[in-house]
Amino acid sequence: MLVNCVAYQDGRKLADVPKDEIGDYIRRPGCFVWVALFEPSLADLQEMREEFGLHELAVEDASKGHHRPKLEEYGDSLFAVLQPIEIKEDELKVGEVEIFVGPNYVLSVRKQSERGFQGVRTRSEKEPHLLKHGAAYVLYALMDTVADRYFPVIDALETELERIEAQIFKRDTARSNIEALYGLKQKLMTLKHAVEPTMEAVGKLRGGRVPQVCMGMQEYFRDVFDHLQHINATIESIRDMQATAIQVNLGMINLNETEVTKKLAGWAAIIAVPTLIAGIYGMNFKGMPEYDLAYGYPLCIAVMVALDVALYFWFKKIKWL
Amino acid sequence: MLVNCVAYQDGRKLADVPKDEIGDYIRRPGCFVWVALFEPSLADLQEMREEFGLHELAVEDASKGHHRPKLEEYGDSLFAVLQPIEIKEDELKVGEVEIFVGPNYVLSVRKQSERGFQGVRTRSEKEPHLLKHGAAYVLYALMDTVADRYFPVIDALETELERIEAQIFKRDTARSNIEALYGLKQKLMTLKHAVEPTMEAVGKLRGGRVPQVCMGMQEYFRDVFDHLQHINATIESIRDMQATAIQVNLGMINLNETEVTKKLAGWAAIIAVPTLIAGIYGMNFKGMPEYDLAYGYPLCIAVMVALDVALYFWFKKIKWL
Amino acid sequence: MLVNCVAYQDGRKLADVPKDEIGDYIRRPGCFVWVALFEPSLADLQEMREEFGLHELAVEDASKGHHRPKLEEYGDSLFAVLQPIEIKEDELKVGEVEIFVGPNYVLSVRKQSERGFQGVRTRSEKEPHLLKHGAAYVLYALMDTVADRYFPVIDALETELERIEAQIFKRDTARSNIEALYGLKQKLMTLKHAVEPTMEAVGKLRGGRVPQVCMGMQEYFRDVFDHLQHINATIESIRDMQATAIQVNLGMINLNETEVTKKLAGWAAIIAVPTLIAGIYGMNFKGMPEYDLAYGYPLCIAVMVALDVALYFWFKKIKWL
Amino acid sequence: MLVNCVAYQDGRKLADVPKDEIGDYIRRPGCFVWVALFEPSLADLQEMREEFGLHELAVEDASKGHHRPKLEEYGDSLFAVLQPIEIKEDELKVGEVEIFVGPNYVLSVRKQSERGFQGVRTRSEKEPHLLKHGAAYVLYALMDTVADRYFPVIDALETELERIEAQIFKRDTARSNIEALYGLKQKLMTLKHAVEPTMEAVGKLRGGRVPQVCMGMQEYFRDVFDHLQHINATIESIRDMQATAIQVNLGMINLNETEVTKKLAGWAAIIAVPTLIAGIYGMNFKGMPEYDLAYGYPLCIAVMVALDVALYFWFKKIKWL
Amino acid sequence: MLVNCVAYQDGRKLADVPKDEIGDYIRRPGCFVWVALFEPSLADLQEMREEFGLHELAVEDASKGHHRPKLEEYGDSLFAVLQPIEIKEDELKVGEVEIFVGPNYVLSVRKQSERGFQGVRTRSEKEPHLLKHGAAYVLYALMDTVADRYFPVIDALETELERIEAQIFKRDTARSNIEALYGLKQKLMTLKHAVEPTMEAVGKLRGGRVPQVCMGMQEYFRDVFDHLQHINATIESIRDMQATAIQVNLGMINLNETEVTKKLAGWAAIIAVPTLIAGIYGMNFKGMPEYDLAYGYPLCIAVMVALDVALYFWFKKIKWL
User: Fold this and answer.
1) Do the chains contact at E241 and D301, CB–CB below 8 Å?
2) d(CA C271, CA C260)
């Protein structure tokens, strides 16, 4: 589905361009066309391929879906794959954006992703001094937007970790903690598999040998790289704490086991001691003098209670109860 | 066993070539011969060695079997070892394909692998504009096919992990989970030991200093490399989750132990308390007034039952039962 | 908030400069201006941006706050982000310092950090032979100060680890140890996320291709780098011991469980054996000769006590009690 | 002890050379001498040092024993240390071979290693087209032999791992498994410490800047490197599985603990329930109607048995017994 | 404290030099002065600084103490920090040696280290053919000595590990093993933090771009590097085994727990079964025929004993007792 198709010159919008006039505009010097597609059909892609002379392998990747961010040079054009991530009902939803960039065109293809990039276009059109850098600026603006959208995701994961940390030393939370920690790990892996290759991709544009089409924009891509590096460091940090938290949780489970065993032992003693006494006074020996005492029975009960009270406080003192 | 031997020129099939005419064709300029062998004898290999002037060490590797993917240059020719993997009855079966590539020949040797590469030849012959890149294109097509055949394997492993994840927080599945996780790890290692060195091998053809025979094909090999990188990242991801799952499973085992101990403690109390009371009323003291009560016995039983009901609900409340 | 604004020439203070005369001073050859801001407003930053011609992206980073140390070149100027860390009530408090350095100016922006850098200025003014290196020396002095302030933090963490190590093999400390180890890990991660990128940033100034403005100062920055490397190695070392300590703590928990189980078993035997004997002598068989013994009852009690004493010493001997 | 000393020219044996004529032969152009020593005395080494002009530090290393494979250049000569490994009575025995290689000599020194390299000499003498590459070929042949002798060792370790894997999910094997896994780990470390540095050493001869004396032999050394890489990958793979197996074993131990606790709980219930009933009917209340029933006693016993049978099947059903 | 101050020329001692004549000697061509200080005062260091023109930052590091080995170039001079380690009463004691090396002087500063380097001087003076390499040779000799003194330390740690390994599978050693393993880890970390940066420092002198003052000595420094590499590999190996040993120890603790639980269960059964029987024959039913049997009581006791003997052998057979 074609979302927009606009031609720009010197940072300013020239015109909305019907698909069949794209060719006219991209031949004008100093002019570039920015086309946005949403979940295009194979036919749409083929059409664009012919219009812009895209490389066969790039178009094949775009049509198949690819599932891993990357940046590839094909002659003087670039093919980038990005993965925006959205949170939906506590799950991470991975989308895909493919961007073809040439000296005089940008073609962005969005898939499985609800939030579009219309805002990027609007913002860019308001800043002609930046947009006049041409197609590379649009690539930057899209990458920057995708990277910025990782921040709320990483914040959500940090919040999740803090929530678990607040639980982890409490009793009887081990089962829910361990499930939550496993879920957190899954989300971290999803995020990491989007961020790390994106970082690698953006890194190719930030310095050293930079593709011709992005020359002069290094400082901008370095800025995106820097944000991604920050996100990546935070992911590593959460992972590290999450791994420690799993170990700690295991320790808490075992501590809890010990506490249960201590409770069991304490109460067992409190019941077993009077049971033993009762057993003794159920014996049938002749001549057990206690049997004939005036207060034999109440005395016996009193001894039982006294022993149990003593045991109770003793176990309290050594923290077994 | 000779599977095929065909000569090509300008991307088109010239003729099926009998073994002893190979020499004629490879001397023709712009012509190359593509020979496919299946589990060849040492004699077959020696014959080919003389025909194409293969390097002694490469032929020795091919005859011995080698068990690790690689790519080596011998002068202006290449020797590649690949490991296609098939799933058979829930086990991974590792095959081996050796490919010798020179400017005017491709020799592929397939071993321990049921699925052949006839489809690759058929497809290539239908795309003369690609096949006219010559021997390097055939190498690409074979590598691409081997790489693509890893995808169903990785999908099977992901499915396996998901199956275990769905079990892991259930009770009484610890034993089967731990066996499944160990089995998964074994399969991951097998796959990883095929993919990682293949990636390294293909990486030598995707950029930087590329062997003469593969010049101009870098974008194609980069595409294979990219697929392998994707597979490799997924392997790492499954490994990471699998390691966490083993830890989680250990936690679940210990949690379960605690739950068993709690149940044991609860029921022990429920039996021990009336046992104590029964013991008391089995004592032989003189003058135990309860003995002479009209409803002494039913009252005693009632107290026992009442205490047990109270204990039962108490243990239910604190989740020990 | 403007803290200071002073012009220097040849390592000596020229004058306190009102904001609107900055322009005059930075145009004088051999003169540089050192401005210090504390939690500036956006307007303050914009003003400085115009005064010194700072790069838009750097100013944006400074205004947003950035949370990760770095060093970036923008043309012939540098933008550095540092994170001083202070200990407040047993918590680590991460501040932020941004430094813009050009050939004839230094602008430092301090945020969320109580301790200022007035001491750095005073010390620098007392050493004109060093300060005459210009803006780069000020950058060095600030970096050196931030790095030196990590030392008390790392010392505190080492002390914390030693405190835990002194506890870890004691009984009944497992719960507090595991909480302390988790807290230590959190602090280590905070420190590591400040130190590691700072090290990377300073590393760019210590050798190899060094930005023009820092030429001739490499030995000084190498010294800061060396201090950071020392801190970093100590962090790694504490982390490593902390991870081992968590494992050891888990071992101690399980050892403790075994000791509790042994105690439980020992006392259970000591109670159960006389209970069995009492049970036997509560039986109602005819013709149990013991019943009619003169000292049947005391003998029976004596046997019970004797068995229990024997059991007690036996369990003491095998260290179950 | 001198094992052999032979001069070669053009790949063919010239003569067995007495020690004091070595000098004559190594001065002949196109001729090289191959000396093999076995556990030489210091005097033997000093003699050789003078004969061939070996470097002091290399001879010192050789006389002391060194315990780590390496390759070092001293001017136009090479000094290599290798560690052949043999299996003796289920233990790994690490030997040492030092090789000095110059343009016109090879001196091999074998220590603590039963299997010699006579076979290498015999094989080399049968292949004059290879041996005429000179001293470097001998170095290759020795390295190749040492590398090939690692294969049976790695096979033995793989077999050992498989043996443990076959045991690991069986009951009551935890103790022997954990001992076997620890022993396997020790052997892996021994092998790894021989293979890894050897790989590094051979790597210096396989490409890039190659020492003069080995020029033109890169493909051969690459082949050895490739075998070592294969061995190394297998070591890593066994290590990885061994680490997982230790975790799994810990899980099995804990699972087993749970099963024991369940059994304990089940049988405890089966004994405790009739004990309670017996206690009740040992009470001395007046007017317990059951006492006077005609079949009171057998009924009571029947109830006990019925309850126990029910409990038994219940516990069987929930897999506690 | 000044230990020695000697001038050398052509590898031979010229004279013991009083401090104030140092200047005369270092101006003589081909002559160098070797000064050794022990725990010098700040004044001593300042004096040396002026005498030899040492760099301010290096002297500052030396006066403060530094705690991490390193090698730094300051113009044409070098500043090295080494950490000799001694074993004292089972503890590792880390010393510090700083070495300033210029074309015509060596200044070594020793701190917190009992063993001096007088032996190095004596040995060097006996080998004028080596000492005539000048200051760089002295640096080598000191580094080599420090490296050689690590060997007894690493041997002690290996012995310690072997001692623990011999204990680890024995019963009731878990507590002492875990303490010993933690102590071993601490020592390993201390050693590692001395060796690793020393290796890095020496590595700068062994090849590639070597500081002018050390030219021609690369083979000697490579030899030191090689020894350090060997030590480092051994450290890694001990660490790896130590980590596995901690896991194994945890497994043994849990195995032991299971064995205790089995014992508990076994003896509980042996006591509980006759207790149940005694309970039954304490019941007060009318018409229990056993009560009137001639040998009722002894028969009952016989049954109890028989059951217990059977249980005992059963538990022995399944290895619970």
Assistant:
1) no
2) 17
